[in-house]
Each structure stands twice: as C-alpha cells, then as structure tokens.
Design goal:
Blueprint (H helix, E strand, L loop, with lengths): L23 H11 L3 H15 L8 E4 L4 H14 L3 E6 L6 H14 L2 E5 L3 H15 L4 H18 L3 E4 L3 H4 L11 H9 L5 H7 L2 H6 L3 E4 L8 H12 L16 H12 L3 H11 L5 H12 L8 H8 L24 H8 L7 H18 L2 E9 L2 E8 L6 H14 L8 E4 L6
Parallel strand pairs: 1-2, 2-3, 4-5, 7-8
Antiparallel strand pairs: 6-7
Helix pairs in contact: 3-4, 3-11, 13-14
Length: 430
C-alpha cells in the first residue's frame, strides 16, 4: 500500500494513513507549508539580515554551497535581493562531481562573491568514511559532519556569526522519526574516537566552537517558499547551473548510487522513494510518474556498477560489505525515551491546554537533551507556531533546524491540532 497522494509505502517508519488513504506526512505538509504566511516569515528574515548587516568589516553572512540547487539559489537570492556581502564556503568531501564544481565556479563568478573551499587530509577523511561504513553500514556521516565543521570554522575564523544554508525542510523533512533521538556530533564522536587520532577528530567537532563563538544558523527556505517553477529557471538562465549525472537531486555526490543502494537494502525502500514522494507534494512530478520511477529503482537488487570504484576509493574490501544491512548508526546511541513514553504522551491529546501539553512533552524528552549537553524550553506560542529555545551544547546548532524541530513536530502536532509547526525562537549571536 502507498499513500494516495504521494507514494510513501506502508513500511516507511512511523507512517499511517487516514480514511482517504493519505499519509500523515502529506497531512503534515498541508498543515505546515501549504498554509504558511510567507509574507510574514520573510519580514522575519529581513529583520535577521538587517541585524547582522555591516557588523563585520568584510562579510555580512556565510553561505555553505555544494553546487547543488538549493545552496546555489540561496547564494543568488541573498545577493540579488539583499545585496549582502557573502562568503561562500564549500567542504570538499572527496566525492564531488565535475558538474558541482562547475556550478559553484559559475555562480561565484557571475554573482561576484568570495569563495573558499576546504578539504581535510584525504587519508583522515577516507578513514572516517571507511570506519563509519564498517561500524554503521552507511558512510554519509563524515560528509555531513565535515560540511558543518567547515562552516563553523569559517564563521569563527572570519568572525561572521550569520550562516544562511539551503536546507529544504519542504522537500527533505517529514514528521516521522526512528523513535530514537540522537545528537549527530556525539554519534560521530562515538563511532570514530577510537579510530581517528585526537588531532584529526578535533577538527570535526562543533561543540568547542559553539562554546567559544556563537554561530547563528538559519535556512532561507524556512522563510521563503521553495518554488521549483522559479528556482530551476533562475539557476539555469542566470547562473549557468546544470543538473548532475543523476538529475536534479544531489548534484554534488559522485557516489549517490552507492548510498541509495545501501539505503534500499537496509530499509526496503530507497532515497528516491522519499525524494519522489516530496516531488509529488510540491508539484515537480505526477504521482503516476513518481510511482513508475520508484518501482524501477526499487526493483534493482544488483550492485551499482561503480561499487568496485567506491570500495577502492575508501580502501574497503568485499568482506566489509558482509552484513552491512543489519548495522545502524543507532547502535551507538543510548536510548532514554522509550516507546512506552511516546505512547503515554498520546494520552495527553484533548486533556490539557496547548502550553501544558508542550510542557509535559518537554519534561518527557528533556533527558535526551541533557544527555547531549543541552536543554530545551518553550518560549511562546504565537499564530499557531510554538517557538522553542535551546541551551548548552544544543544552542547555535544546525541540528535544531534539520532534526530537533522535526522531532518535536512529530510528537506535538498530532497532540495539538491548532499548532501548525515548531520553530526556533530568534536569538541574535551578537
């Protein structure tokens, strides 16, 4: 069975369907994104930008770019609409496609933006990839961690506190989680600290930088509509942007077919299932087209032709592939909040005021944040949005946008119909 609006399957973690056969991810999308007041949210974006404009002698903000669609459009939008002095920052992950490199070069030249790129020592990065795969059955964690390590270092080195990234919650996020919340940095450290020398591991860690230098990270697409009918023509016509070897998704990753293969073998569905479902919701393709593409992808059980190249690149062997589908990053996470705790929270619906329900939810999940050196508090509820603040190591963390608000929405939105979303309350870094 698949969702009758998008195509997410019934084996997608945490999914359920209403009487019309529409999944909770689609209903969440309708509630949060289709009804969002973008005029009001862009006014908030303007307030943040004007707060930081001119605070630094050279740059107003940092934009992490990869050569893919979302980050490239962030660069364009901030330069053209707000005329910001931007430092574009790239993490060289060792897997970049030639098209991604060309897209970054063209965008920075055309927009006349300063650009810097950093790559850790290849043997260090290579060992991190290989170790993560051997232990968790996936290899993307060092790339994700390295991307933001590059950004946080650039922010501190240049004393530029505002970072505007291209994370697209409309496309990438869902209100469903694995049932286990974790801090990506603490997980990264747990997987690698016995394998990577301390001086190499230290570069990847963000908490020490956040404690020294506040880094205010926002996503442009939390404030403006992610509209493919505007974004794609703009990129192609004005910045000479081109799709990569695998289409519009993940232009920047040479080994995307390998990551998709591992995901498909572990979970029974691929990354393409998730991106195609999102494409249906936002109008990029029809449901029928998405079903056809997804079924073709998921019918492939053979290894991608580039498997040998990937193994050789990371110094892995065929033996390292044995049993990868049974491993998980969650093997390195100590779970505190249990399934029973989550079930008990469902009993709160309709019995208390919204503020009281949120307080009880936070009381239940707060030990997860304490475990990771942080904390969370409700700031206010305003116009259907619950604003929260993070403290300790959780403050100034990019995970607030990409994971923690999603985690909270997955719990709170089903309990309180009048709440449309969870957002991070604005706190300026200087």
């Amino acid at each position: 069975m698949e969702c009758q609006r998008c195509i997410l399957p019934q084996n997608y973690p945490g999914i359920y369907f209403d009487e019309a056969g529409v999944c909770n991810v689609c209903r969440y999308y309708e509630k949060k994104w289709e009804q969002k007041d973008y005029q009001k949210s862009e006014a908030k974006l303007r307030e943040i930008i004007e707060h930081y404009r001119g605070k630094n002698k050279k740059y107003d903000c940092i934009v992490p770019i990869s050569g893919a669609k979302d980050s490239t459009y962030v660069l364009y939008y901030l330069k053209k609409k707000y005329d910001l002095r931007i430092l574009a920052v790239n993490h060289k992950n060792g897997f970049q496609t030639p098209q991604a490199l060309e897209n970054m070069e063209n965008a920075c030249k055309i927009l006349d933006v300063d650009f810097t790129s950093f790559m850790p020592r290849w043997e260090l990065l290579r060992k991190a990839y290989a170790t993560c795969f051997r232990k968790t059955g996936e290899f993307c964690l060092p790339c994700n961690q390295g991307t933001f390590a590059t950004v946080y270092h650039a922010s501190e080195d240049n004393q530029v506190p505002l970072v505007v990234m291209g994370y697209t919650a409309q496309v990438e996020i869902s209100p469903i989680w694995s049932g286990t919340r974790f801090c990506r940095e603490k997980l990264f450290k747990a997987v690698l600290e016995s394998e990577i020398p301390d001086d190499g591991l230290e570069w990847f860690l963000l908490d020490p930088i956040k404690r020294r230098t506040p880094v205010h990270i926002i996503s442009l697409y939390s404030f403006i509509n992610w509209d493919p009918n505007i974004i794609f023509p703009t990129l192609r016509n004005e910045l000479k942007w081109k799709e990569g070897p695998y289409g519009w998704d993940k232009v920047d990753c040479k080994f995307l077919p390998i990551a998709k293969y591992f995901r498909r073998m572990r979970s029974g569905f691929s990354r393409e299932t998730i991106t195609n479902a999102a494409a249906v919701r936002i109008g990029l393709m029809s449901r029928e087209e998405a079903l056809q593409k997804t079924r073709e992808e998921e019918s492939r059980t053979e290894e991608p032709p580039m498997m040998e190249e990937w193994l050789d690149t990371l110094g892995l062997t065929r033996d390292d592939l044995n049993g990868f589908e049974k491993k998980s990053r969650l093997d390195f996470v100590t779970r505190i909040v249990t399934d029973e705790d989550y079930e008990n929270l469902k009993n709160l619906k309709g019995k208390f005021k919204p503020e009281e329900i949120i307080a009880k939810v936070l009381e239940t999940i707060r030990p997860e944040f304490h475990r990771d050196g942080g904390d969370i508090e409700l700031d206010r509820i305003e116009d259907g949005i619950a604003y929260v603040t993070f403290k300790g190591d959780c403050k100034w963390c990019y995970m607030n946008l990409a994971v923690d608000t999603n985690y909270l929405e997955g719990i709170i939105l089903p309990l309180i119909p009048e709440i449309e979303g969870i957002e991070v309350a604005t706190e300026f870094a200087n």
